[in-house]
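Side project, low priority. Logging it here so it doesn't get lost.
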Amino acid sequence: MIIDRIIYGLLICGLASLLNNTAFKKSPASKVAAWSLTIVIFLVSVVALLVEKYIRYQVMSDEIGVSINPSNLLDMGGAFVFSWVFYACLNKVQKTANEDKNIN
Protein backbone atom coordinates (compact mmCIF):
# COMPACT_ATOMS: atom_id res chain seq x y z
CA MET A 1 0.00 0.00 0.00
CA ILE A 2 2.87 2.37 0.73
CA ILE A 3 4.25 1.64 -2.75
CA ASP A 4 0.91 2.73 -4.25
CA ARG A 5 1.10 6.00 -2.31
CA ILE A 6 4.68 6.67 -3.41
CA ILE A 7 3.83 6.00 -7.05
CA TYR A 8 0.74 8.22 -6.81
CA GLY A 9 2.81 10.99 -5.18
CA LEU A 10 5.36 10.77 -7.99
CA LEU A 11 2.55 11.00 -10.54
CA ILE A 12 1.23 14.14 -8.81
CA CYS A 13 4.73 15.70 -8.86
CA GLY A 14 5.08 14.69 -12.50
CA LEU A 15 1.77 16.36 -13.34
CA ALA A 16 2.92 19.57 -11.63
CA SER A 17 6.23 19.44 -13.52
CA LEU A 18 4.39 18.88 -16.80
CA LEU A 19 2.21 21.91 -16.13
CA ASN A 20 5.29 23.95 -15.20
CA ASN A 21 6.97 23.00 -18.48
CA THR A 22 3.92 23.58 -20.68
CA ALA A 23 1.11 25.81 -19.43
CA PHE A 24 3.19 27.83 -16.97
CA LYS A 25 6.46 27.93 -18.90
CA LYS A 26 6.24 31.60 -19.91
CA SER A 27 4.68 32.88 -16.72
CA PRO A 28 4.02 31.19 -13.36
CA ALA A 29 0.54 30.20 -12.28
CA SER A 30 -1.57 32.94 -10.74
CA LYS A 31 -2.99 32.42 -7.26
CA VAL A 32 -6.44 31.68 -8.66
CA ALA A 33 -5.08 29.12 -11.14
CA ALA A 34 -2.87 27.47 -8.51
CA TRP A 35 -5.71 27.16 -6.00
CA SER A 36 -8.19 25.99 -8.64
CA LEU A 37 -5.83 23.29 -9.87
CA THR A 38 -5.09 22.25 -6.29
CA ILE A 39 -8.82 21.87 -5.55
CA VAL A 40 -9.22 19.76 -8.68
CA ILE A 41 -6.26 17.59 -7.63
CA PHE A 42 -7.81 17.21 -4.16
CA LEU A 43 -11.09 15.97 -5.65
CA VAL A 44 -9.28 13.65 -8.07
CA SER A 45 -7.18 12.33 -5.16
CA VAL A 46 -10.28 11.61 -3.08
CA VAL A 47 -11.74 9.53 -5.91
CA ALA A 48 -8.43 7.83 -6.79
CA LEU A 49 -7.72 6.86 -3.18
CA LEU A 50 -11.31 5.65 -2.73
CA VAL A 51 -11.03 3.40 -5.78
CA GLU A 52 -7.59 2.15 -4.72
CA LYS A 53 -8.83 1.30 -1.22
CA TYR A 54 -11.94 -0.45 -2.57
CA ILE A 55 -9.91 -2.54 -5.01
CA ARG A 56 -7.34 -3.39 -2.32
CA TYR A 57 -10.06 -4.70 0.02
CA GLN A 58 -11.73 -6.65 -2.79
CA VAL A 59 -8.44 -8.36 -3.68
CA MET A 60 -7.76 -9.20 -0.02
CA SER A 61 -11.30 -10.56 0.35
CA ASP A 62 -10.92 -12.77 -2.70
CA GLU A 63 -7.54 -14.09 -1.53
CA ILE A 64 -8.65 -15.16 1.94
CA GLY A 65 -12.22 -16.10 1.02
CA VAL A 66 -13.86 -13.87 3.62
CA SER A 67 -15.59 -10.61 2.83
CA ILE A 68 -13.63 -7.71 4.31
CA ASN A 69 -15.10 -4.22 4.18
CA PRO A 70 -13.34 -1.06 5.33
CA SER A 71 -15.06 1.01 7.97
CA ASN A 72 -14.59 4.16 5.88
CA LEU A 73 -13.58 4.26 2.22
CA LEU A 74 -12.72 7.97 2.21
CA ASP A 75 -9.11 9.00 2.77
CA MET A 76 -9.34 12.75 3.20
CA GLY A 77 -5.96 13.00 4.91
CA GLY A 78 -4.21 11.33 1.99
CA ALA A 79 -6.04 13.55 -0.51
CA PHE A 80 -5.00 16.63 1.48
CA VAL A 81 -1.35 15.51 1.51
CA PHE A 82 -1.30 14.83 -2.22
CA SER A 83 -2.97 18.15 -3.04
CA TRP A 84 -0.41 19.92 -0.80
CA VAL A 85 2.41 18.11 -2.67
CA PHE A 86 0.91 19.29 -5.97
CA TYR A 87 0.60 22.88 -4.71
CA ALA A 88 4.21 22.81 -3.44
CA CYS A 89 5.52 21.51 -6.79
CA LEU A 90 3.54 23.97 -8.91
CA ASN A 91 5.36 27.05 -10.17
CA LYS A 92 3.37 29.92 -8.65
CA VAL A 93 3.63 33.70 -8.78
CA GLN A 94 5.96 34.80 -6.00
CA LYS A 95 5.45 37.88 -3.87
CA THR A 96 7.94 40.62 -4.60
CA ALA A 97 9.58 42.90 -2.07
CA ASN A 98 7.47 45.83 -3.29
CA GLU A 99 4.22 43.93 -2.67
CA ASP A 100 5.40 43.07 0.84
CA LYS A 101 6.16 46.76 1.54
CA ASN A 102 2.75 47.86 0.21
CA ILE A 103 0.96 45.40 2.45
CA ASN A 104 2.78 46.61 5.57
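Brief comment: The CA atoms of residues 14 and 93 lie 19 Å apart.
Revisit when time allows.
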